[in-house]
Each structure stands twice: as structure tokens, then as C-alpha cells.
Amino acid sequence: MSFLISLLWATHAATAQGILFGVMALGVYITFRVLDFPDMTCDGSFVLGGCVSAVLIVKAGWNPYVTLIVAVLAGGASGAITAFLHNKCKIPAILSGILTMTALYSINIRVMGQANTTLLGVDTVVSMVKDILPESIQGIANFTNWVVIVLGCIFVTLVTMFMYWFFGTEIGCAIRATGNNGDMVRALGEDTDKMKMLGLVIGNSLVALSGALVAQSQGYADVGMGVGTIVIGLASIVIGEVIMSRARTFKFRLISILLGAVIYRVIIAWVLQMGLKATDLKLLTALVVAIALTIPKMLGATAASKATISMKGGDSNAKH
Amino acid sequence: MLNINEVYKTFNPGTINEKKALNGVNLNLNSEDFVTVIGGNGAGKSTILNMIAGVYPIDRGSIILDGIDITYLPEHKRAHYLGRVFQDPMKGTASNMEIQENLAIAYRRGKKRGLSWGITKAEKEKFHEELKVLGLGLEDRMTSKVGLLSGGQRQALTLLMATLQKPKLLLLDEHTAALDPKTARNVLSLTNEIIQADKLTAIMITHNMKDAIKYGNRLIMMHEGRVVYDVAGEEKKNLQVSDLLAKFEQASGGEFANDRMMLA
What we know:
Strand order of the largest sheet of chain A: 1-2
Order of helices and strands of chain A: HHHHEHHHHHHEHHH
Membrane topology (chain A): Multi-pass membrane protein
Oligomer: heterodimer
CATH architecture of the largest domain in chain A: Orthogonal Bundle
Largest interface: A-B, 23 and 36 residues
Radius of gyration of chain A: 21 Å
Largest sheet of chain A: 2 strands, antiparallel
GO molecular function (chain A): transmembrane transporter activity
Number of helices of chain A: 13
Distance between the termini of chain B: 31 Å
Protein name (chain A): ABC transporter permease
Shape of chain A: globular
Distance between the termini of chain A: 51 Å
Largest sheet of chain B: 6 strands, mixed
CATH class of the domain at 2-81 and 167-263 in chain B: Alpha Beta
Strand content of chain A: under 5%
Structural class of chain A: mainly alpha
Helix content of chain A: over 70%
Structural class of chain B: alpha/beta
Shape of chain B: globular
Helix content of chain B: 25-40%
Number of helices of chain B: 10
Strand order of the largest sheet of chain B: 6-7-8-3-9-10
CATH topology of the domain at 2-81 and 167-263 in chain B: Rossmann fold
Number of domains of chain A: 2
Subcellular location (chain A): Cell membrane
CATH class of the largest domain in chain A: Mainly Alpha
Strand content of chain B: 15-25%
CATH topology of the largest domain in chain A: ABC transporter involved in vitamin B12 uptake, BtuC
Keywords (chain A): Cell membrane, Membrane, Transmembrane, Transmembrane helix
């Protein structure tokens, strides 16, 4: 019984974290899926967001919410650097991101002056909300996680609404088309370099926002907190695609990613409860993503071969 | 209208793969000229179209379009004046996007893109009417993803997208070569209708000599990066495939015309 209860609360905490990581997954979705740009920058920009936010709170005494804006701008700048390396220096996409990510490791330590910054005893986005809530509900079990869930839902809603609006605009459409067919976009008079720049800036802004929220909710920023960010983002996207495979519209695609991010965290929490070592998680995540990326391809291949067979048999319904 | 002066282009200069693609091309087009371009493989047909479109920079020479020097303009800026349809049906459209979204992006060619909504209600109605003209029933599938369309449908759509904003010059790079013969004929006659109706200036590359004779008011033959034959008006109308083959053999110094041209 006590195991079940602890599992339940672990799920609860994981949901809270999952929602905050969902913002990151949406950012990765912009670069990886919308723009078709495998952007490794996010491993660094996630940490950058956390560092910038933590340092501004601890050392400069800034309002935690204002630090989020600075984190967003810093993340955007790191995306711009990757875009510059790719567009102007003609470095392949994946390497441009790796270069920025590597450089950010040093920059993040410079920003903090050390390898980590604790946020104990200072205001955070979470503690500020807790402080204004009445005493009577403060006693609820795992109150902090409830606050994180509500706060996370507000941020996630705002980000989703922004993305839904932006990718429906003229520029947003051109960015989507750039990820789909760059030749066409240039032939129709839009600068694909500019579109890649915009996509990378927005994607990494969201990743950094997520990093700042995660750092504030867990109470510290650490230079190692971003390792595997892109893989976690991908895992969320892929899990979302699997559970909502019928989601064709952009709106539902975004929601599926958020669900994917939460489910990913919950799965992780469960396997930890079952006694897996925390350090084995990266291996597990990589395996999950590798399998999840392979299965649709294999299913597609068998479906295609089935279609050919039945078409040979003269079944006109086999056409898609 | 279009003045191409002494344009040279060599790919991979100084290497073992050096290829002189354009060897001093001169070409002057009048307004409303519809030029068909023929020539063997490697004659420089696609290269000259890509040079006009700005896909690669040229080595020497100049390209003037309607009084505007476009020689050094980047590809996306020249696109303001050009409509393009590619050989590969996949290349002209975004397959993961809706038919109407593709059209909306094409409709903004040459215009500044901002933060207003990507497609308006009035545009949807306009696109509905324009799609009807194609006669493919696409007007009832405007929210379908382009990836669901056949190659012929995609080429017809690309053609519409290229001409939605009237271009100063329409570039057609063997745009029916990847289609089956019947679809190719349909797309070709559609092309001709649109060019006539909108009074467009157009350059069309083709491997089919009959089509080259049948369509347009002017025909040029390229060989080894040069224009070797240029014919217009009545003389062009009265051409026979055998005349072209003779010309081709003459140009290539008695070499046998390549298989694709023989079969065409």
C-alpha cells in the first residue's frame, strides 16, 4: 500500500516536472520537426536559461518572473548563433548546434561563476505564488507540486497559444514551408536563411524558458542539467505522436507533445520507483527514442509492401 | 525583356570534374515570347534556367530582366520577378502543407511577409475559383495535404502557384518529363493556355521535339553551352522533327543525336 502511495506521489511530482519540460519539447518541435533542423543547441540553451534566471535572482535580486524574459532572450541569442554558423559559415546543421552547445558549457559556468547555483531561501516563480495563497490551503499534501502544475499549465497554455498564432501567420507559414521544401520557398521569394534564423531563435527561446522554469522549481541551476535535452524533447514528441497518432491538425499536434512530455516524466518516475539507478536513465531514454523512431518506419514498410501485394491482386481499394 | 549577355559558367573549375556548362550564351527575349529550348544532355539548358533564377552565381556576363540588372541578386530576390516550375514534381510544392496554404505562400511572392494571418477568407475564395480552371477537382480538396496529390496534379498546382502573381518571366524546366504521356499532354496544354491567357513571357525546356515545335513562337537549340540555332515566327511553325535532327547533327559535328531525342 505504501508503495502504491509513494508511486502515486511520484507520478504527481513527475507530472509537475513534465509540464515544465513540455515547454522545452515544444521548442525542440519547432527546430526538429517544423524546421527539419536537428538542433543540438538546446542541450546548452536549456542550461543557459536556468543559469541566467538563477544568477539574476540570487546575485542581482531580480523578480523571478522578470528573469524569465532575460532567459528567453538569452536562449534566442544562442539560437541565432547556431543559425549564423549554419547560414553564413556554411557549417552543417548538426555541427553548428554542437559548436554552440559546446561553447555554451563554458559560457554557462562563466554566467554562474561556478558549476551550479542554488535557489534555496530566495524567491522563485513557485514560492511567490505560494506566498500569496491563503494559509488554509497551504497544508494540502505536496502543495508545492500542485502549485507547479497550475503554474506550468498557465505557461504551457500561453506558449501553445503563441505557437498556434505565430505558425498561422505569413512568416510562420514560410517557416513551416522552409522545413518542408526550401527550394520552393526561395522560388517563391522568401529568404530561407532568415526563416531558419527565426525558427532557431524561437525554438531556443522556448527551450531556455523551460530551463529557467525547471531550475526555479527544482531549486537550483546546474551546468549538467541540460545533458540529453534534445533526446528528452524528441522522446516527448515521439510519445505524443504514438498516443495521438490521429492528431493531424497543428493544435492537436502541440497538445500531443505536451502529453508526451508528461508521460515521459511519469514513465521515468515509475522505473525509478522500481529501483532503476538514476544514472541509467539516459540509456533508457535513448533506447526509447531509438525504438519509437524505428517502429513507424517498420510499420510503414510493411504497410507499403502489403499495398503492393494487394494491388497486384487487383484490389483497387489498396490505393491511399 | 530579357537580355542574357556573354554568360559563362564552369562547374568545379580546376578539378578533374571541370565542366564548362555555359560558354558565352547570348539570348534576347521580347515581351510575350514563348521560347522552347531543346538540346542534348549537358548542353546547358537547365544551367541557363538556373542562372536566370539565381540558383548559382555566374562566372562572367550579365542578365538583365525588364531593365533590371539581376546578375548579382540572390535567388529569393529574383523570385519577385520569376515564376518557376521544376522537373521534379516534389520540388515545386510543400507536401506536408495544405493545397490552400501552398497557394497562399505563392500568392505572397514578391510581397513582404508579416504577422497578419497566412491565408484570408477572400483568398480562399479566389483560390477556389483559380483551382476550378485546372479542371482537376482540386477546388474541393483545398485543405488536403499536397503530399496526397499525384505528380501531374502537383505539377498543375505548381504551375498555378508560379503564375498566381503574374511573373515577368516564367521558367519551365522540363516540367512534364516526370509525368506519364497523357498527364504530360494535359499539363502542357494547360501551360499553353495559361501563358496565352496571361500574356506571359516564358522559357520552356523540353526533350520532346514535337512539343518544342508545337508550342511557343520561338525555338532555340543549345549545344555545349551555346545557343546554336534560333528560329521564330513562320519558319518555326513550318519546322519538322527531321529538320531539328539534321540541325542537331550539324551542331554536334556529325555525332549521332542522343537516344532520348531520337525517341521523342
